[in-house]
Amino acid sequence: MGTSANPASGRQPQSPGLGDRFYQWLDRRTGIDGLLREALDEPIPGGAKYAYVFGSALLFVFLSQVITGVFLAMYYVPSADHAHTTVAYITKVVTGGSFIRSIHVYGADAMMILLVLHMSQVFFYGAYKKRRELLWMSGGVLMLLIIGMAFTGYLLPWSEQSYFATSVGTSLIGEVPWIGSYLKEIILGGGDMGTLTVSRFFVLHVFILPAAIFGFIAVHIYLFRTAGAAGPAWGNPETIRAKTENFYPRQVIKDIVFVTLVIMVMGLLAYFKPADLGPAANPANTTYLPRPDWYFRPFFEWLKFWKGGDEFIGEMIVPAVGILIFFLVPFIDRNPERAPRRRPNAMTLLMVGLCAILGLGWYSYHQDAVDPSVAKELHLQSEEDVRFMAAPFHVEMIGNIPGKVAPVNKTVAAGEKIFNNQGCSTCHGQGGVGTAIAPKLIGIVKKLGGASKVGYLIDHENAAMKAGGMPQFHLAPNQMKQLLAYLSSLK
Ligand code: HEC
Q1: For residue 346, how many C-alpha atoms fall within 13 Å in the half-sphere facing its CB?
Q2: Residue 84 · residue 281 · CB < 8 Å
Q3: 295 to each of 125, 149, 201, 354, 420, how far by Cα in Å?
Q4: How far apart are CA 142 and CA 221, in angstroms?
Q5: Burial grade of 382 (CB within 10 A; 0-12, 13-18, 19 or more)
Q6: Could you tell me where the DSSP H helices lie in 371-468?
């Protein structure tokens, strides 16, 4: 920040340059000098350290999420009919859209990693002790809100993946005792996941949770400033006092160095490995294997251990007790000792906790890899994602809004209706892009050498179709003509 001017330095009043004069002008009207001092002159016992950068990085990535989120919201339409189309449009058509979306997706990943690092550092340093109970608890609320952001954001693209993974999560909400079914209905906007669900998740993801996060960030920082930086957990108090320095400049520089590193990693990932998007959700698909994002994998795996009668214990009681204990940590652990070496129980808990999370996550991926039928199905699903990503964006535009409008040609439009109503799209995918069950039909007329040949196949079926479960479709000549017109339009 450009704070080179210092009105209190007692310089001659006639000598200050334009910059200094402007700063004084501004300061008299806003008190900015005092504000900056308040913000930057926070003493850090023992001096600046890289161990303290994670909180600032979380704040930075959150702001980045807000900015990229605003850009995504400019195109995104929260309805079951349009959500996927508009995300596909962002990913495939909008200039820089895929990059912005990828930064948003990787930003969510980064927040999860930074959250674990920040909490581990605070726990390791015993920085929740000595009048910092509320600071720790406000951090706990932020953690839950961020998890809520990840959960609600995941559904918004309305892809197969996001739809089915989210329905695993929402079915859990229904298990909450007494109020579960009401809660689920409120969150879903009805009995099933549909347009109201997208719209409610959107409202949570874009208005309610971010507003709460902003509020709790303010509380968290206020409580942090009130308690003061905790400083090192070990060492000679005299040396620590001697090495104490202000937040600005050295800690600010360390924060900036680390944040720059985070930006670089996110930017490189977004550029070289853009976030992908699978085909649109098909609620009728009963065989889809849902898999949540990696950060929910440990919990996803944990749930599998509790099938049967004691499901409720694993799904509700243990997580609820876990969260309660998490919040009460500063009250349970009243020992003022902060040095990790002299807190064997706390360190064991931290290690066991981290290992359990990593272990469960690893085990979840391992399970998927060793079961051949699961591995095959997941492979097919990810191939579908790749195929969908590779297919050109073919939805037509209403004005400059991408929308699923009927093709201009009436015969083709009627054909598309038949294609969807007859269930062709269930196997061959929306717009005939192909699925794990049946091949893509884009360019099929050319491939088979004419519409009449395709018509013959649909009417009679061949061995491969029979094997794949495609029935014979005996359509009226007029309908067949319309269907073939539609198939011919898929290029
Ligand atoms: C139950 C799933 C299913 C449904 C429903 C279905 N198909 Fe198929 N379709 C298949 C399978 C499986 C194949 C054969 C795949 C192969 O050749 O290996 C196939 C093959 C085809 C082919 C030949 C593709 C090629 O590359 O040779 C056409 C054309 C076709 N289907 C059109 C349709 C149309 C039009 C409809 C709706 C009237 C429809 N299908 C409904 C599963 C289905």
Answers
A1: 25
A2: yes
A3: 24, 13, 19, 13, 36
A4: 12
A5: middle
A6: 372-390, 410-421, 424-428, 444-448, 451-460, 463-468
Name the CATH superfamily, with its identifier, for domain 409-489.
Cytochrome c-like domain (1.10.760.10)
Q: For residue 280, what are the β-bridge partners?
A: 159
For ligand 1, atom 33, name the residue with the nearest CA. Answer: 424
Instruction: Give the residue, by CA position, lying nearest to ligand 1 atom 34.
Output: 424
* Cα-to-centroid distance, 432 and ligand 1 (Å): 10
Query: For tokens 């073939």, what's the residue?
Result: 484
Burial class, 482, CB count within 10 angstroms (exposed 0-12 / middle 13-18 / buried 19+): buried
Instruction: Choose among 460, 452, 462: nearest CA to 485.
Output: 452
pLDDT single digits (tens) 256-289: 999 999 999 999 999 999 999 999 998 888 889 9
**pLDDT of 3:** 46
**Nearest CA residue ID for atom 21, ligand 1:** 465
Q: Is the pTM of this model over 0.85?
A: no
The domain ranges of the chain are 47-373, 409-489
Residue 354 neighbours by CB under 8 Å, 6+ apart: 116, 120
Give 397's strand partners: 402
- Residue that has been written with the tokens 């040396």 in this structure: 239
Atom of ligand 1 nearest to the CA of 439: 15
407 — pLDDT class (breaks 50, 70, 90): very low
Q: CB–CB of 395/89 below 8 Å?
A: yes
Structure tokens belonging to residue 351: 């290690």
Which residue, by CA, sits nearest to atom 13 of ligand 1? 465
42-64: pLDDT as tens digits:
999 999 999 999 999 999 999 99
Question: How far is ligand 1, taken at its centre, from the CA of residue 402, in Å?
Answer: 28
- What is the structure's pLDDT at 11? 52
- Whether the Cβ atoms of residue 212 and residue 317 lie closer than 8 Å to each other: no
Q: What is the CA radius of gyration of the chain?
A: 28
Residue 180 tokens read as 């579960």
- CATH architecture of the domain covering 47-373: Up-down Bundle (1.20)
Instruction: Give the pairing of strands 245-246 and 43-44.
Output: antiparallel
Catalogue the E-assigned strands of 31-190.
43-44
Distances in Å between the Cα of 133 and the Cα atoms of 212, 225, 319 are 20, 14, 21
Residues with CB under 6 A from ligand 1: 422-424, 426-428, 437-439, 441, 444, 454, 457-458, 464-465, 468-470, 473, 483
